[in-house]
Amino acid sequence: MTLARFVDPLPLPALAKPVGQRAHPAYPGKQLPLYRMEMRAFKTQLHRDLPATPLWGYGGTFPGPTLLAQRNHPLLIEWANALPEKHFLPIDHTIHGAERDKPQVRTVAHVHGARVSPSSDGYPEEWFAPGHATLSHYPNAQDAATLWYHDHAMGITRLNIYAGLLGAYLIHDDAEQSLGLPSGDCDLPLILCDRLIAKDGQLYYPVSDDPQAPWVSECNGNAILCNGKLFPFLEVEPRRYRLRLINAANTRFYEMSLSGGLSLTQIASDQGLLAAPVSRQRVTLYPAERADVVIDFSGMDGKHVQLRQQAEAIMEFRVRDRGRRDTGTMPATLRTIERLAPASAVRDRVLSLGEQDDAGGSAMMMMLGGKHWSAPVTEDPRQDTTEIWSMVNLTGDAHPMHLHLVRFQVLERRPFDLFAWNESKTLKYTGPAIPPTPEEMGWKDTVRADPGMVTRIIARFEGEPGRYVWHCHLLEHEDNEMMRPFQLLPA
Ligand code: C2O
Ligand code: CU
């Protein structure tokens, strides 16, 4: 499929607007802004020369409207399922949670990276069918960060997100707003995801050879969408811009760079600002990871700059002077990030990625800690304690591992002896620990667990006790057992 490049403007998702105010028992005596996010089927052109593509989206758009929140200003969202009764993508009914006795179309929204109570976190089994809605509350009591929201329904998350159920959720705070970073219309979300798109504009989702069990372990598209468009362009002024890169893909990781050797300055990762800006030629993002980057187009009037994913140009910036000037400069430091001390951890959990505990089970299944989703909870941190999780990757692939509720720091990655593990479940390191790179030294909520490595993270488990989840963010893995509940026990 050869399509003309850079003929459509980059879509900027609309800002979500409150539909009213409402009281909520979690915030006595307060009226909170109420948003309503209705999931609807709709059609849109992903490219000027393609017929319209049927999709699902929050607010009938893809990506959905951007939610803008301010730290410590709680808000309410009513998530409403107004989708059709039938799914348009291939459900695998042999997958746990997607059996034939369940409605085909089920949704539950999760704000990725938000610290919320269990009832508002979008627990995968708390899905609801078309015609139903649920009210969630978001305290926004956390640092400024680029979060995103997406579907999380048990056994069909990969299909619901692929269909278009995703959007950006941005939290601002005073500290960040005092830094003079590009703001307003110079601060834009750039949501990246790939899709398999046919000539007729239809979205395709790959299937296995077995019509009874169509699940596949990965889904890579033939087209990379930027805010829902193929090869868009954006007119910019000769000044600095802040782009919030979000990898919303099912499987693919992105290696982003700019043409002409222009560098990107990374200022934030998943959970907000880094301690200091990091100049980079290339920004790698695994599914669900975010990077806020500042690009400086000063002095480039009339020039075109392309954004590349590996060697392919996927988007173009066109610099045009409209007389506005950028007076800000990049601060040398952005915030203080206190490193969590490993000695403060009350526990080091050794958790395998991709182990089978039942030899007779499906060969394609990947599990966490050797356990299925439905096994009793084994990860049960106590509120306000610090834990280390050592994730032992037994597979040949990297898995982006995500914990709900908490932010964490990456301690290290360290090679280990797979044979020793398989023989006797003992962890034998075979080389020195590799410390995180500067852009991984900030707060994270998703971490790349490399093959052959133990990836160690440290987190303080603050929040409301109850049930949350942790999982691989390759959506095909997440849907097929690479997800486990965790229970936050009261202090
Ligand atoms: Cu981005 Cu459990 O989710
Ligand atoms: Cu995985």
Would you summarize the structure shown here?
It comes from Dyella kyungheensis. The protein is mostly beta strands and 491 residues long. Helices cover 4% and strands 39% of the residues.
Describe the secondary structure blueprint for this structure.
Layout lengths: L7 E2 L10 E3 L9 E13 L8 E6 L8 E4 L4 E7 L27 E4 L20 E6 L6 E7 L5 H6 L3 E7 L1 H4 L9 E11 L5 E2 L18 E4 L2 E2 L1 E5 L3 E8 L6 E5 L5 E6 L2 E9 L2 E3 L4 E7 L7 E6 L2 E8 L25 E9 L32 E8 L5 E5 L4 E8 L2 H7 L21 E4 L3 E8 L5 E7 L2 H5 L3 E6 L3
Parallel strand pairs: 1-15, 3-6, 5-10, 11-16, 15-23, 24-25
Antiparallel strand pairs: 2-3, 3-4, 6-8, 7-9, 9-10, 11-12, 11-13, 13-14, 16-21, 17-20, 17-22, 18-19, 18-21, 22-23, 25-29, 26-28, 26-30, 27-29, 30-31
This protein binds CU-O-CU linkage and copper (II) ion.
The site of copper (II) ion has 6 residues, from loops.
Structure commentary:
It is a single chain. The protein is mostly beta strands and 491 residues long. The chain has three domains: 8-175, Immunoglobulin-like (Sandwich); 184-319, Cupredoxins -  blue copper proteins (Immunoglobulin-like), CATH 2.60.40; 342-488, Cupredoxins -  blue copper proteins (Immunoglobulin-like). It contains four helices and 31 strands. The chain has helices at 157-162, 174-177, 418-424, 475-479, and strands spanning 8-9, 20-22, 32-44, 53-58, 67-70, 75-81, 109-112, 133-138, 145-151, 166-172, 187-197, 203-204, 223-226, 229-230, 232-236, 240-247, 254-258, 264-269, 272-280, 283-285, 290-296, 304-309, 312-319, 345-353, 386-393, 399-403, 408-415, 446-449, 453-460, 466-472, 483-488. A hairpin with a 2-residue loop joins β13 and β14. The radius of gyration is 22 Å and the shape is globular. The termini are far apart. Mean pLDDT is 96; it is low at 359-363. Copper (II) ion is lined by residues 366, 399, 472, 474, 477, 482.
